[in-house]
Design goal:
The protein is of the alpha+beta class. 13% of the residues lie in helices and 18% in strands.
Length: 109
């Protein structure tokens, strides 16, 4: 059964039978693609197939999809390209500056 199986009262009070929005679907296991539908007292049939009976050797019905691959490895988070706070600037010392500061300190003594 497909659809809403709830039974509703007809808008015309003269109609006493409840109405339903559900459809009963029957699929043939011998002829894949043969379907019969029942809705509000009417029966319709449709065949969507290639004219071959079901056989155990052939798979006529859809099979399960292949297994989904694992998720790829995550990248490591890096610094934000536009941070909310300005980063602290570090002053780099040049190799020669240490020597000059040491000499100035000796001259002061």
């Amino acid at each position: 059964m497909c659809g809403d199986p709830t039974e509703y009262r007809h808008e015309n009070p003269a109609v006493k039978e409840p109405q339903s929005n559900s459809v009963v679907v029957a699929r043939s296991l011998v002829w894949p693609g043969s379907y019969s539908f029942f809705y509000n007292g009417k029966v319709q049939s449709i065949y969507l197939g290639n004219g071959h009976k079901f056989s155990i050797e052939k798979k006529n019905f859809p099979v399960n999809p292949p297994v989904v691959m694992d998720d790829p490895e995550e990248y490591e988070d890096g610094p934000e390209p536009t941070p909310l706070e300005e980063p602290v600037k570090e002053v780099e010392k040049v190799e020669g500056e240490d020597d000059e500061e040491a000499k100035e300190g000796e001259d002061d003594d």
